[in-house]
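Duplicate of earlier report; HdeD family acid-resistance protein input re-posted below.
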Amino acid sequence: MLDFVAKNWWLLVLRGLCSIVFGVLAFAWPHVTLGALVFLWGGYAFVGGILALGAAVTGTGGAPWWVLTLEGLVSIAAAAGAFFFPGLTAVVLLYLIAAWAIVTGIFEIVEAIQLRKVIENEWWLALAGIASVAFGVVLLMSPAGGALAVVWLIASYAVVFGVLLVALGLRVRSMPKARFA
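Output:
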């Protein structure tokens, strides 16, 4: 399995780069309407869900296929909610994003625990999972925050999460090939 992850390290990097692009776009357009943010976030969650499902099918996530499948389905369901109900209020959107971040963060921590069984001292994915859970908890604690603050918080989370996944992908890529035999 680790050999397959090593050969497909670029999927981790691609997922991280998508997250970074999303974060940069959110920083660049802070006065975007909430409706546009709903669609932008929905696209991000959809792509993340598709990539998680791809990792489940190909076995590149370092976790059981069902964990990645569930993470992917939760992300796609959250995206569908954003697309089919674009008139959601800011509070409802924040709860949706918070729940998504907490659930995917928990699954990322589980994935990191599984990955630690085959790679010593691997903690990038665990940090990404902790960042996801912390982001969700912060949103739950202050759902009535200003729209600009929420955009910056979402953008910051996406960039940090993306950098951590890119770092994990590059770490896996740079590991000696003899470890995967």
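The chain is about 80% helix and 0% strand.

Merging into the original ticket.
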